[in-house]
Design goal:
The chain is mainly alpha-helical. Helices cover 55% and strands 3% of the residues. Helix 9 packs across helix 12.
């Protein structure tokens, strides 16, 4: 049995666990960016995509992508079902790790890519077609791309293209697949509703706090996402983690400064989007560039992603969570910048990688290698995904988009039969109850839905006070009229004296407030709630 260094094994196990944290973190991030009627759906689709990705990877995905005996474009089925995987050393880890450790670590890249794609269907896509698509897409799109870039015999790696932590297999792949999904959902909308030429509807995040918590957890997991590519406890893992931390910080600051220059407001959602953009831009280069170059890559990538968020309004593509702008464009920019800033001295930190570097080492052909990989992956992912989605949409019962009535209710109610926020779902069902026209809406006979509201007067619910949230206009204040309060019991001095020979009235407590008592008026309160931003 091959002896493996315990430190290397522990390092890759730690990275795998950190990457697992990224999946629910993305679910929280996407849930916060979604309307409240899609919040639970985003978290649920996250788990569904994760489970299907693990299933596909174990059945045959690992063997198709990273089989040591695979070809230049696709692997084989020699290791299907994780057969003969456990103890054999794997060549992409330079023989320092067993195949099972590599299989579990690399499988998390597929899981994260599948979870990223859930952002492309928020509020519109159906669950069952999406789950079927993920399994098929992982087989015919992700596995071939992973074989090209990371496979022991892949053509892109043999050419000399560099990708340390998933610029092409993860981010470019997910971004252009998300673009194809958005186009198909838009086409499906036009086919069913006759609105294919209309611009996409504005999108409103419902919880900035969920966005911030999800971003923080995602950032934490990304440190393992990057450092695991060193396949051991060495200086390259340390450099990759350091560059990743730099990428998130400078990417967030660059986006926030750009937004402040335009809006004169420091958007926290904007900062989170910039942090993710910086992390995406550093993924392909985190183990190949010096820290000063990581700063440049993060700033350039964040600015490019910020500008790319406006593309969907010009080309009328459904991309409410900017999957294409942040992951597709960010992955492309980051991968191309490897050709400029990769350094052979940095790559030698793990003791195994020998590269010629990029332009900083006067190796000008490296940019050409990066272009070949970037545009090949982008084109393949987009067109194959588009064809696959078209086929699935044509199968009876598997149309990709929800019906118009289901969209108006939201996927939480329609697809899952559950909601994340019950009181907001009640307002959606009956947003303006009128006690004058609803005889059942009384203190003693009101329905359970509004009985807890009858003690209040009129509320003016302001969802968000600012004019825009991360560049999007917000809803105007919503007026909710609620019934007036129940009148106070009569005071003792208002009771009519009893007639002659009648028994005296039962003594009552005096609730009066004195001679200056005023009639109780309906309350008029203003409640500010970030949960009603949708």
């Amino acid at each position: 049995m091959e002896a493996y260094h315990p430190g290397d094994l522990l390092s890759v196990i730690h990275s795998t666990l950190a990457m697992m944290l990224m999946c629910p973190a993305l679910g929280m991030l996407y849930s916060g960016l979604s309307p409240h009627s899609s919040a639970l759906s985003m978290a649920g689709m996250n788990l569904a995509a994760l489970s299907i990705a693990v299933l596909q990877w174990v059945v045959w995905g690992y063997s198709l992508a990273l089989s040591p005996t695979g070809g230049k474009f696709m692997g084989n089925l020699r290791h299907a079902g994780f057969h003969h995987v456990a103890l054999e050393p794997h060549p992409i880890a330079f023989g320092r790790l067993p195949g099972l450790a590599v299989a579990m670590f690399e499988g998390m890249f597929l899981c994260i890519t599948a979870v990223i794609l859930t952002g492309s269907i928020v509020g519109r896509g159906r669950v069952v077609p999406f789950v079927i698509f993920i399994f098929c897409w992982a087989t015919v799109v992700y596995c071939p791309v992973a074989c090209w870039v990371w496979g022991p015999n892949g053509w892109s790696g043999d050419l000399g293209a560099l990708d340390f932590a998933g610029g092409s297999p993860v981010h470019i792949n997910a971004g252009f697949t998300g673009l194809a999904y958005g186009i198909m959902l838009r086409w499906s909308r036009g086919r069913h509703m006759g609105e294919s030429s209309a611009p996409p509807e504005p999108h409103y995040p419902h919880s900035a706090m969920l966005v911030m918590i999800g971003t923080g957890l995602l950032w934490t997991g990304w440190l393992g996402f990057a450092s695991g590519g060193a396949f051991g406890a060495n200086l390259m893992a340390l450099m990759a983690s350091s560059n990743t931390m730099i990428g998130g910080a400078f990417g967030g600051l660059a986006w926030a400064v750009l937004d402040y220059r335009i809006e004169r407001k420091m958007s926290m959602i904007g900062f989170c989007s910039g942090a993710v953009s910086g992390l995406v831009s550093l993924s392909p280069s985190s183990g190949y560039v010096a820290p000063w170059a990581a700063i440049v890559c993060a700033i350039v990538g964040s600015v490019a992603c910020n500008l790319a968020t406006q593309l969907k309004f010009f080309v009328h593509v459904e991309d409410p969570l900017d999957v294409f702008a942040i992951h597709g464009i960010g992955g492309m920019v980051g991968s191309l910048l490897v050709g400029l800033f990769a350094e052979k001295e940095v790559a030698k930190l793990d003791g195994n990688r020998l590269i010629k570097g990029g332009w900083v080492n006067q190796h000008y052909a490296q940019l050409g290698y990066q272009c070949a990989e970037v545009f090949s992956v982008a084109g393949y992912a987009f067109f194959v995904s588009l064809v696959l989605l078209f086929i699935i949409d044509r199968i009876p019962g598997l149309h990709l988009r929800m019906d118009p009535g289901a969209e108006s209710k939201g996927p939480d109610t329609n697809q899952h039969g559950e909601v994340c926020y019950e009181f907001l779902a009640q307002l959606d069902d009956d947003p303006n109850p009128n006690p004058d026209t609803d005889p059942s809406n009384t203190i003693n006979g009101s329905s359970p839905r509004h009985s807890h509201e009858n003690q209040f007067g009129i509320y003016e619910l302001h969802a968000i006070q600012s004019k825009k949230v991360d560049g999007y206009p917000v809803h105007p204040p919503m007026q909710v009229n609620l019934p007036p309060p129940q009148p106070m019991p009569p005071s003792a001095q208002d009771i009519t004296p009893p007639a002659h020979n009648e028994p005296p009235p039962t003594p009552m407590l005096d609730f009066s407030l004195g001679p200056q008592q005023q009639p109780r008026q309906p309350l008029n309160r203003t409640v500010t709630s970030p949960l009603l931003g949708e």
